[in-house]
Specification:
Jelly Rolls; Arc Repressor Mutant, subunit A
Length: about 210
């Protein structure tokens, strides 16, 4: 995210940034609290969850590196819209919101970088909404498995390991746990074999044609 910045800009940003190693199960920010920090995830995984007025809560995203967390609320000075909790040990950059906003007033290049990052976030959100409305749970699961196979192809292109449990995976692709089981069952006909967290894709081309129909 910060790669386009000049060396002087990076030095100024570094002066207000802390590198933090965080244990799993630590709450980084809480929904409704004042957004006083920007977190950038370098290693590990974080869940973002929201709570309804009746107390019911749901995981809305599982964040993996390298990603920033809730940038929009930090830039706008709004309360956090979600609660962020580490689900593995994690390494993060922690940047004070007030210090970042002050730096933005004097460094247009930093503003451009953050605006670009937020635009990418918005584009990803629109894509996710479109997927939820236009694709079945099985198709969304197939897309997720293909993405993982690309990330883990250095080990074995047709075998992969789910980085999260199936309850979080259901939240990640936007369905209930029982719908996830049905989605995996549908994908068996396309050569998707599961053994706990280990997944074997016996026919990647057929799976790709299923999730990306011509």
């Amino acid at each position: 995210m910060f790669a386009p910045l000049s060396q002087p800009s990076l030095i100024r940003l570094g002066a207000i940034t802390t590198l933090a190693d965080i244990d799993d199960g630590v709450t980084l920010c809480r929904e409704g609290d004042r957004a006083d920090k920007l977190h950038v995830l370098l290693n590990g995984m974080v869940t973002l969850s929201a709570e309804a007025a009746n107390g019911r809560s749901a995981v809305v995203e599982v964040v993996r590196p390298v990603r920033h967390l809730v940038l929009a609320t930090v830039l706008a000075g709004l309360p956090y819209a979600v609660t962020a909790v580490t689900i593995t040990p994690a390494t993060l950059l922690v940047i004070g919101a007030a210090e970042l906003q002050a730096l933005l007033r004097d460094d247009p290049a930093l503003g451009n970088v953050l605006m670009h990052a937020q635009a990418l976030d918005f584009r990803a959100m629109v894509r996710e909404v479109c997927d939820l409305k236009l694709r079945t749970a099985a198709e969304r699961l197939g897309c997720y498995l293909l993405e993982l196979s690309q990330e883990q192809q250095s080990r074995n292109n047709n075998q992969l390991r789910l980085p999260i449990g199936k309850q979080l995976l259901a939240a990640r692709i936007g369905c209930r746990h029982e719908n996830l089981s049905r989605a995996f069952a549908s994908l068996r006909e396309l050569g998707v074999e599961t053994h706990g967290k280990r997944v074997i894709l016996h026919d990647i081309q057929r799976l790709r044609e299923f999730v990306l129909p011509t």
